[in-house]
Amino acid sequence: MSDEMAAAATVSLLVRRELDDDYVGLWVLPWHIRRIDPNAPDERVQEIARAALEALVEQDAALGDLDEATGVFNPWPPGGAVDAAMSAWRALHRDPNIGEVAWLALTS
Amino acid sequence: MSQLLRAFVAAVIGLLLGMPSATSAAVAVPHAQMQIYTYDNPHGVSAPTHARTERGPPAAAYDYTAAPSAGDHGPRGASARPQLRSAWAYTTYDHTAWFAQRGSSIGTTRTARGGRVAEVRAVPGASVAANAGTRSVGDLLAPGGSMIGKAGTDASIRELTGGLPDAQAMFQQLSQGGKVVAQTPKLTRVELPNNGGFVQLRTEMSRSPNTAATIDVNIPGYDIRKLKYNP
After folding, report:
1. Which of B2, B8, B13 is best to mutate for the A interface (most A CBs within 10 A)?
2. Less Cβ around it within 10 Å: N or C end of chain B?
3. d(CA B28, CA A9)
4. How many percent of chain A have pLDDT more than 90?
5. Are B224 and B154 in contact (CB under 8 A)?
6. Which chain B residues are within 8 Å of A4, Cβ to Cβ?
7. Rounded to whole angstroms, what are the CA distances from B56 to A27, A104, B61?
8. A-interface mutation test, from B8, B9, B37, B191, most A Cβ less than 10 A away
9. Is residue A105 predicted with pLDDT exceeding 90?
């Protein structure tokens, strides 16, 4: 298994466990990835994050917005959600921070 | 990254979490006996936090003035040599740089020449915070060098016993000097000065009914990213 695969699987598992009792911001993915591979360039971090996101969405998680006024999670349509999140991430030209781009929540 | 890789990662997650994956049946796992090493200790691979506690001097000069007992080392029972007086060492802790006193004659006041002057080093920021009556981020997140609370679903999530007031008190200290960038009835997000990162207090924005409040932490150099307060 390549380092990339291992990193993506590890991050997916960490996030999936956390999703059991909380929403998880997109910023958490690069936070974990950069601790697994501190020297990874941005492109590699994004690649690993994309793989992890697709795996999570394929299971039982959804990407979406967390309404900061009401606390209600509004999921995005599943088709293209990962692309939309990664596109917004790239537009930042840095890692997303707390509250930026998207949140993850379980659909079940 | 190839479609196969994504499918593989999804299959691994499904396998480890015990749930079916949409593609797990279709994907041939390359090595059935392959071990997956989960990354469950982010503390071990990142930069040290340099958390440090300062022992410091006693609050006031300390004079040890215990009364000597007769003759022997033991304070109890009749002395075998009552004619002798033991050599009690009276020491005066009168210099803030001394961490320990060595034995000296009765009534001696030690001087720097005879004493062992300890070298005291501290993180400048920590000292400034301590002097200002506040605690540094390191002291808050890792008091005494140990991460606060107990580990949650991974070591970077710390669970603490406490309610909203406790979370608010911690958040106030963590966000000292920062700028509020978002505030709603459900959350407050603060950007810390000097590119110091972000902290966020969430209330009722969690799937966990037992959590009163959550503090999200994204501060460079620290391996804690969430504090959960459970009553």
Report:
1. B13
2. C
3. 16
4. 90
5. no
6. 1, 5
7. 39, 46, 13
8. B9
9. yes
Judged by DSSP in three states, B217 sits in: strand
The mean per-residue pLDDT over the stretch A65-91 comes to: 95
Report which secondary-structure segment, H or E, holds B164: helix B164-174
Half-sphere exposure of B138 (CA within 13 A, CB side): 19
pLDDT of B35 > 60? The answer is no
Residue B175, pLDDT > 60, answer: yes
Contact B143, B154 (CB under 8 A): no
- Chain A, 75-94: which have a CB under 8 Å from a chain B CB? none
The residue ranges of DSSP E strands in chain B, in sequence order, are 62-63, 92-93, 150-151, 157-161, 179-183, 187-191, 198-203, 213-218, 226-230
Other C-beta atoms closer than 10 Å to the C-beta of B67 total 6
CB B75 within 8 A of CB B86: no
Angle (deg, nearest 10), helices A42-59 and A28-36: 120
Rounded distance, CA B12 to CA B73, Å? 69
Question: Roughly what angle, to the nearest 10 degrees, separates helices A42-59 and A3-19?
Answer: 50
- Residue B171 burial class via C-beta count within 10 angstroms: exposed 0-12, middle 13-18, buried 19 and up: buried
Q: Provide the token pair at A41.
A: 């360039």
Q: Do A13 and B17 touch (CB under 8 A)?
A: yes
